[in-house]
Amino acid sequence: MKIGILSDTHDNLPRIRQAVDRFNQLGVEFVIHCGDFIAPFSLKPLQNLNCEYVGVFGNNDGEKMGLQSSSSGRIRVEPATIELAGRKISFFHDIEIFFNLAADSQAFDLICSGHTHKAHVERRGKSLIVNPGECGGWLYGTSTIAMVDLDKLEVEIIKLE
């Protein structure tokens, strides 16, 4: 099963649309957003995904009620956990609070985070750790997303141009 991961979209509608198009082209079956959507209008492009998505609130998501309503409850308080294709997944935005707890627990096959705006891939024990970087591209000027093959537990960081 292929899943898409994105974070820190920060209302950049052209990049969000590009990420959605890329996920659809790649045939991902589920998408995880690791926070910092910003405004509810930024969720509209996600309606064009050919799959379901979930997300968590980030530190800049001020209009939480609007985001939760516009997403039909798909956006949760961090940390969140799901199971897909027999893999336990934890995802959150703020790495300072949850990262070491999740990684050290060895309870998860995949740990996804955002917040730093920098793409990062690491293995810690049995856990694959993925930060897809910033989809919005506002901070560092490079927009990235990630695709994870849950069967192989392999990740690809994808640059949007």
Question: Can you offer a commentary on this structure?
Answer:
The longest helix has 14 residues, at 13-26. It is globular and about 40 Å long. Strand 10 and strand 11 form a beta hairpin. It is an alpha/beta fold. It has a single domain (2-160), classed as Metallo-dependent phosphatases (Purple Acid Phosphatase, chain A, domain 2, 4-Layer Sandwich). It has three helices and eleven strands. The strands form two sheets. It has a six-stranded mixed sheet. A five-stranded mixed sheet has the order 5-6-7-9-8, with helices on one face.
CATH architecture: 4-Layer Sandwich
Count of DSSP-assigned helices:
3
Percent range of helical residues? 10-25%
Strand content: 25-35%
Sketch the topology as an H/E string, one letter per element: EHEEHEEEHEEEEE
The oligomeric state of the chains shown is single chain
User: In one word, what is the shape?
Assistant: globular
| Superfamily (CATH H level) name | Metallo-dependent phosphatases
Structural class: alpha/beta
Radius of gyration: 14 Å
Distance between the termini: 25 Å
The CATH class is identified as: Alpha Beta
Features:
alpha/beta, 34% strand, 11 strands, 5-stranded mixed sheet, 6-stranded mixed sheet, globular, Purple Acid Phosphatase, chain A, domain 2, 161 residues, 20% helix, 3 helices
Topology:
Blueprint: E1 2-6, H1 13-26, E2 30-33, E3 52-56, H2 64-70, E4 75-76, E5 80-84, E6 87-91, H3 95-105, E7 110-112, E8 119-124, E9 127-132, E10 143-149, E11 154-160
Parallel strand pairs: 1-2, 2-3, 3-4, 6-7, 7-9
Antiparallel strand pairs: 1-10, 5-6, 8-9, 10-11
